[in-house]
Design a protein that fits this description.
By secondary structure, the protein is of the alpha+beta class. The chain has a single domain, classed as Roll (Thiol Ester Dehydrase, Chain A). The chain is built from four helices and five strands. It has a five-stranded antiparallel sheet with strand order 1-3-4-5-2. β4 and β5 form a beta hairpin. The protein starts with 10 loop residues before the first strand and ends with a strand. Keywords: Lyase.
Length: 136
Protein backbone atom coordinates (compact mmCIF):
# COMPACT_ATOMS: atom_id res chain seq x y z
CA UNK A 1 0.00 0.00 0.00
CA UNK A 2 1.16 3.53 -0.67
CA UNK A 3 1.34 6.02 2.18
CA UNK A 4 -1.17 8.35 0.52
CA UNK A 5 -3.74 5.51 0.45
CA UNK A 6 -4.00 5.40 4.25
CA UNK A 7 -6.78 7.31 6.02
CA UNK A 8 -7.84 8.02 9.59
CA UNK A 9 -10.32 5.39 10.74
CA UNK A 10 -8.98 2.74 8.38
CA UNK A 11 -8.61 -0.58 10.16
CA UNK A 12 -7.46 -4.12 9.70
CA UNK A 13 -8.49 -7.14 11.78
CA UNK A 14 -7.28 -10.71 11.82
CA UNK A 15 -7.68 -13.72 14.07
CA UNK A 16 -4.84 -15.68 15.63
CA UNK A 17 -4.90 -18.77 17.81
CA UNK A 18 -2.42 -18.55 20.68
CA UNK A 19 -1.00 -22.05 21.00
CA UNK A 20 1.06 -23.79 23.65
CA UNK A 21 3.81 -24.16 21.06
CA UNK A 22 3.89 -20.37 20.54
CA UNK A 23 4.10 -19.74 24.29
CA UNK A 24 6.81 -22.36 24.78
CA UNK A 25 8.81 -21.00 21.84
CA UNK A 26 8.49 -17.45 23.19
CA UNK A 27 9.66 -18.62 26.63
CA UNK A 28 12.68 -20.35 25.08
CA UNK A 29 13.51 -17.42 22.82
CA UNK A 30 13.28 -14.73 25.52
CA UNK A 31 14.23 -16.76 28.58
CA UNK A 32 10.96 -15.74 30.28
CA UNK A 33 10.02 -19.06 31.83
CA UNK A 34 7.64 -17.66 34.44
CA UNK A 35 5.76 -20.78 35.55
CA UNK A 36 2.36 -19.11 35.07
CA UNK A 37 3.24 -19.35 31.36
CA UNK A 38 5.19 -22.61 31.25
CA UNK A 39 4.11 -24.92 34.08
CA UNK A 40 0.57 -26.30 33.98
CA UNK A 41 0.59 -27.45 37.61
CA UNK A 42 1.85 -24.09 38.90
CA UNK A 43 -0.59 -22.17 36.68
CA UNK A 44 -3.51 -24.32 37.86
CA UNK A 45 -2.90 -23.02 41.39
CA UNK A 46 -2.68 -19.40 40.23
CA UNK A 47 -5.57 -16.93 40.07
CA UNK A 48 -5.91 -17.83 36.38
CA UNK A 49 -6.45 -21.57 36.92
CA UNK A 50 -4.37 -22.52 33.88
CA UNK A 51 -1.44 -21.38 31.77
CA UNK A 52 -1.61 -17.94 30.20
CA UNK A 53 0.30 -16.45 27.28
CA UNK A 54 3.00 -13.87 27.85
CA UNK A 55 1.59 -10.38 27.32
CA UNK A 56 4.59 -9.52 25.18
CA UNK A 57 3.82 -12.45 22.89
CA UNK A 58 0.63 -10.65 21.86
CA UNK A 59 2.66 -7.47 21.25
CA UNK A 60 5.09 -9.49 19.13
CA UNK A 61 2.17 -10.72 17.03
CA UNK A 62 1.00 -7.11 16.66
CA UNK A 63 4.51 -6.22 15.45
CA UNK A 64 4.35 -9.00 12.85
CA UNK A 65 0.97 -7.76 11.61
CA UNK A 66 2.22 -4.16 11.39
CA UNK A 67 5.28 -5.16 9.37
CA UNK A 68 3.68 -7.78 7.14
CA UNK A 69 -0.04 -7.15 6.78
CA UNK A 70 -1.19 -3.68 7.84
CA UNK A 71 0.13 -1.12 7.23
CA UNK A 72 2.60 -3.67 5.86
CA UNK A 73 6.17 -3.78 4.59
CA UNK A 74 8.03 -0.60 5.40
CA UNK A 75 6.31 -0.07 8.77
CA UNK A 76 8.88 0.65 11.46
CA UNK A 77 7.84 0.54 15.14
CA UNK A 78 8.86 3.74 16.90
CA UNK A 79 6.78 3.50 20.06
CA UNK A 80 4.19 1.25 21.69
CA UNK A 81 2.06 1.96 24.73
CA UNK A 82 0.19 -1.08 25.94
CA UNK A 83 -2.15 -2.15 28.71
CA UNK A 84 -2.69 -5.81 29.50
CA UNK A 85 -6.30 -6.06 30.67
CA UNK A 86 -7.23 -9.75 30.60
CA UNK A 87 -5.22 -12.97 30.32
CA UNK A 88 -5.03 -14.84 27.05
CA UNK A 89 -5.23 -18.58 27.63
CA UNK A 90 -3.44 -21.21 25.59
CA UNK A 91 -5.36 -22.46 22.58
CA UNK A 92 -7.54 -19.32 22.68
CA UNK A 93 -8.32 -17.52 19.44
CA UNK A 94 -8.15 -13.73 19.59
CA UNK A 95 -9.09 -10.87 17.27
CA UNK A 96 -6.27 -8.40 16.66
CA UNK A 97 -7.23 -5.01 15.25
CA UNK A 98 -5.07 -2.16 14.02
CA UNK A 99 -6.84 1.20 13.47
CA UNK A 100 -5.26 4.37 12.11
CA UNK A 101 -5.82 7.24 14.55
CA UNK A 102 -3.62 9.94 13.04
CA UNK A 103 -1.51 10.49 9.94
CA UNK A 104 1.52 12.79 10.01
CA UNK A 105 2.09 13.29 6.29
CA UNK A 106 5.24 15.41 6.51
CA UNK A 107 7.10 12.73 8.49
CA UNK A 108 5.34 9.69 6.99
CA UNK A 109 4.19 8.56 10.43
CA UNK A 110 1.04 6.76 11.50
CA UNK A 111 -0.45 6.63 14.98
CA UNK A 112 -2.48 3.45 15.37
CA UNK A 113 -4.58 1.79 18.03
CA UNK A 114 -3.61 -1.82 18.66
CA UNK A 115 -6.11 -4.13 20.33
CA UNK A 116 -6.45 -7.82 21.11
CA UNK A 117 -9.98 -9.00 21.85
CA UNK A 118 -11.00 -12.34 23.32
CA UNK A 119 -13.81 -14.41 21.77
CA UNK A 120 -16.15 -13.38 24.59
CA UNK A 121 -15.71 -9.72 23.58
CA UNK A 122 -13.42 -8.76 26.46
CA UNK A 123 -10.44 -6.59 25.61
CA UNK A 124 -7.23 -8.43 26.53
CA UNK A 125 -4.74 -5.86 25.23
CA UNK A 126 -5.22 -2.19 24.40
CA UNK A 127 -2.56 0.16 23.16
CA UNK A 128 -1.31 2.76 20.75
CA UNK A 129 1.70 2.65 18.49
CA UNK A 130 3.63 5.17 16.45
CA UNK A 131 4.98 3.93 13.13
CA UNK A 132 7.38 5.35 10.60
CA UNK A 133 6.30 4.22 7.15
CA UNK A 134 9.22 3.51 4.83
CA UNK A 135 7.14 1.86 2.12
CA UNK A 136 6.12 3.53 -1.13
Amino acid sequence: MKFEDFFVGQSFSTRRKITAEMVDSFANLTGDRNPVHTDEEFARKSRFGRRIAHGMLSVGIISAILGNEFPGPGSIYMKQEVRFLKPIFLEEEVLITIEILEIKVEKKRLSVRTTVEKNNGEMAVDGEALLLFEGE
